[in-house]
């Protein structure tokens, strides 16, 4: 069962941390390089130096200026500090000139204070747990994992540890349904929602022993957490394989299931199912095994943040305005993933889509029973689910068609229901309106047939011998939307001329 979380933060910390005693220095200013023509600039540089002292509490201003030995030991760092201070001075001078002589010290200091840490940090810390030993404030820092030129991260200094935040979800403002390369490099805003980057996760977690902490806030603002004492992400050759274990916490162990799995995205399928979980199931890249909503924490907020369990999309229409994949809860159902769309101002549940030849629809009884395909592309929802949904109320069916001249037509049936398996998924359909022509009333009261289950009244199996497309056949049919597109176009009426078809249903009482 899916649980909606309105906020999600994932971060890691090193279990074992090496200690360093190096300190930052600024050294005496070189008059040729750092001479101040404007006393106001000199004053501001003094304030900035004070900030550097705050960043290095174990050194006084005097020590920072006079510790020649340390300067010599850190000559490259010192040169970098001088270079950055020169850049700061140039920026300060420009701001003062632009302000036409007005003193705006506090505003200027606030503008560049965020960047001062980069000037003041002499040691290149590999993660937030090392920064914690020198700084107590949570915020954005630059870390330097092995073979890295520097990565901007958000460090969380709570709980007495320095945590490196590797993912944050708070409001759905950032699209997480991204490609392999985007997840490799990372994306988003470290101040808001973001993903750290799989290649950096590998670099970081391969440099020592790391633990993972996941903080969750549900729609009732209840906070829970999960900690895993073992957390490692492999390199790209391993498909960023996940190693995770040793759970503690209050949220429940939901990630051991993913241990040993490879990372999947919508354009790189590495899960163990026939389809692509990252694309068709949740639009959420993750270390998928079999598609499982509960264990996927990068899914779009819209997909899971439904506190009320709606029986179909028509009930959501007042709150949801976007086409996409949702979970509905018809009677006696634990939840069904469906594609929902708005057509003609109404909320429809799509039960079938044909758009190209990528999915084989000439399948067996069991496959039509359970459903198949990709909810984002071509699929059949499943006769079991058609029965469950249409048995809870009165439903109408809409069929949208596109012919080989790209002309669009439609048919609406005000009465649509599918029986259970004992009835051979008997079809009830009627009350036609539209401009495509009535080609399904002929099928009213008929049973579903597949190539391995012949329930029509024709002398042979229509599906197996003629249409190669399971359907509710009598003497074969005037409509067959599941034809094998490699052998024929979609049939509606007396013509096989349609190249696209969508079937969708809506509750009307």
UniProtKB/TrEMBL annotation:
SMART domains: FBG (SM00186). It comes from the Eukaryota. Residues 119-291, 304-509 form the Fibrinogen C-terminal domain. InterPro entries: Fibrinogen-like_C, Fibrinogen_a/b/g_C_1, Fibrinogen_a/b/g_C_dom, Fibrinogen_C-term_domain. Pfam families: Fibrinogen_C. Residues 1-19 form the signal peptide. Residues 259-280 are annotated as: Disordered. Keywords: Signal. PROSITE patterns: FIBRINOGEN_C_2. GO terms for cellular component: extracellular space. This is Fibrinogen C-terminal domain-containing protein.
């Amino acid at each position: 069962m899916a649980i909606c979380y309105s906020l999600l933060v994932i971060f890691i910390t090193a279990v074992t941390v090496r200690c360093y005693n190096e300190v930052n220095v600024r050294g005496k200013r070189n008059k040729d390089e750092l001479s101040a023509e404007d006393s106001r600039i000199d004053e501001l540089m003094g304030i900035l130096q004070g900030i550097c002292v705050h960043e290095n509490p174990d050194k006084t201003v005097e020590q920072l200026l006079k510790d020649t030995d340390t300067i010599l030991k850190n000559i490259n760092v010192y040169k970098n500090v001088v270079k950055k201070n020169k850049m700061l001075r140039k920026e300060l001078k420009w701001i003062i000139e632009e302000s036409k002589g007005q003193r705006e010290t506090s505003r200027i200091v606030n503008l560049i204070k965020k960047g001062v840490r980069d000037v003041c940090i002499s040691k290149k810390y590999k993660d937030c747990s090392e920064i914690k030993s020198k700084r107590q404030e949570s915020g954005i820092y630059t870390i330097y994992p092995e073979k890295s030129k520097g990565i901007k991260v958000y460090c969380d200094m709570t709980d007495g540890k320095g945590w490196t935040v590797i993912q944050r979800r708070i409001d759905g403002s950032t699209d997480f349904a991204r490609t392999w390369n985007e997840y490799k490099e990372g994306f988003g805003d470290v101040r808001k929602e973001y993903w750290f980057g799989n290649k950096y996760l590998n670099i970081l977690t391969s440099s020592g022993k790391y633990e993972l902490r996941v903080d969750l806030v549900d729609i009732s603002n209840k906070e829970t957490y999960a900690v895993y004492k073992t957390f490692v992400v492999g390199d790209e050759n391993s498909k960023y394989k996940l190693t995770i274990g040793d759970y503690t916490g209050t949220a429940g162990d939901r990630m051991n299931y993913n241990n040993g799995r490879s990372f999947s995205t919508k354009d790189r399928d590495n899960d163990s199912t026939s389809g692509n979980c990252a694309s068709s199931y949740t639009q959420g890249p993750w270390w998928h095994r079999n598609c499982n909503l509960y264990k996927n924490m990068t899914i779009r907020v819209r997909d899971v943040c439904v506190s009320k369990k709606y029986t179909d999309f028509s009930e959501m229409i007042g709150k949801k305005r976007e086409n996409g994949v949702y979970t509905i809860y018809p009677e006696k159902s634990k939840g069904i993933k469906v594609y929902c769309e708005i057509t003609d101002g109404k909320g429809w549940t799509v039960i079938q889509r044909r758009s190209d030849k990528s999915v084989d629809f000439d399948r067996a009884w069991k496959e039509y029973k359970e459903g198949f395909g990709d909810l984002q592309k071509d699929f059949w929802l499943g006769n079991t689910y058609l029965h469950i949904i249409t048995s809870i109320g009165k439903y109408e069916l809409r069929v949208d068609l596109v012919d080989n001249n790209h002309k669009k037509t439609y048919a609406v049936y005000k009465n649509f229901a599918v029986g259970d398996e004992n009835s051979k998924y008997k079809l009830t359909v009627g009350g036609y309106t539209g401009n495509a022509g009535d080609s399904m009333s002929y099928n009213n009261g008929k049973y579903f047939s597949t190539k391995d289950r012949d329930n029509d009244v024709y002398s042979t199996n229509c599906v197996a011998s003629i249409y190669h497309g399971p359907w509710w056949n009598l003497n074969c049919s005037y409509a067959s939307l599941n034809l094998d597109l490699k052998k024929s176009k979609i049939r509606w009426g007396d013509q096989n001329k349609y190249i696209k078809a969508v079937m969708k249903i809506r509750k009307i009482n």
